[in-house]
Amino acid sequence: MIECYTFVRYNKPVLTLTPFLQEGHDLLGEQVVMYASGMLNAQQKDQATFSLFSQIDFAVDRWIQDKRYVPRLLFSALAFMLSYLFFSLVVRDPLPMIDELLISSGLAIFVWVSLSRRDTRSILAQENRQRLKMIGGKRSEQIQENLFSIEEYLDTCAKTDVRELAGQLVEGTIPRWTNTLDGSERIHLRTLLDRYLAVYEKPTARWVQRLDRSRKKDLGTKLYIQGSEGSVDLSLLALRCALKQSEE
User: How far is CA 28 from CA 21, 31, 34, in A?
Assistant: First the structure.
């Protein structure tokens, strides 16, 4: 069973966390269950479905590229060698070695990218994509009321002044989260959130790493600016920090 989570957010599309973004996901599940704190309306269900399907596309693309990695590597290396030999032995004139290396490297990269795109459009990839989306479309939806504490926390952060929240994140004084989840579920959700940020919210993910390393006060201004511009999602960053703190 593939377990997914949907959280309703204040003035933003729903947040959908799934295991499809995790490395090594085997794509073998035969049923998808979507947990939410309450009933979703039609718009929220559509948003959750769109996010779920996007993550399925990501998972299938990565799976097929991992599966075809060795052949792609061999063909790219072959293209490099043939190109290098051609310009070295057949084209005898003024091309110095550096030009031959650059041309051959460019051709190898072109072959790599072309084969990657072909693999993602292959019949095998399309069959897996269609199968998983069909399963996702027929998912069961279950209410898990203890997830409401996460939605409540996201709403609290979203309504907090940006400068104030940025300062709290840097100082380690973020709003208190009323924890209603057991330890294993908190770790699981934090792991799913980390993968979501790494794929879809890269600037926010970089701030996770930065705050894990250091909480210097001068970082507050930088975080405030990026949070004000919308490049960093301070609510998700605060939630991730709260989940991490709850594990300690």
Answer: 14, 9, 17
Burial class (CB in 10 A: 0-12, 13-18, 19+), 244: middle
Phi and psi, residue 41, nearest 5°: -80, 180
Q: Which two tokens stand for residue 167?
A: 């300062």
What residues contact 101, with CB distance under 8 A and at least 6 apart? 84
Q: What is the pLDDT along the chain (248 residues), one digit of tens a residue?
A: 889 999 999 889 999 999 999 887 777 778 899 999 999 999 999 999 999 999 999 999 989 988 888 988 998 899 888 888 887 777 665 556 777 788 888 889 999 899 888 888 888 889 989 999 999 999 999 999 999 999 999 999 999 999 999 999 998 888 888 877 888 889 999 999 999 999 999 999 999 988 887 767 678 889 999 999 989 999 999 999 999 888 76
Whether 48 and 6 have beta carbons less than 8 Å apart is answered as yes
Let me know: does 56 contact 20? Beta carbons within 8 Å. Answer: yes
CA nearest to 163, candidates 70, 94, 90, 227: 227
Q: What pTM was computed for the model?
A: 0.85
Question: What element of type H or E holds 99?
Answer: helix 97-120
Q: Which letter, b or e, does each residue of 184-197 get, where b requires 16 or more Cβ atoms within 10 Å of its Cβ?
A: eebebbbebbbbbb
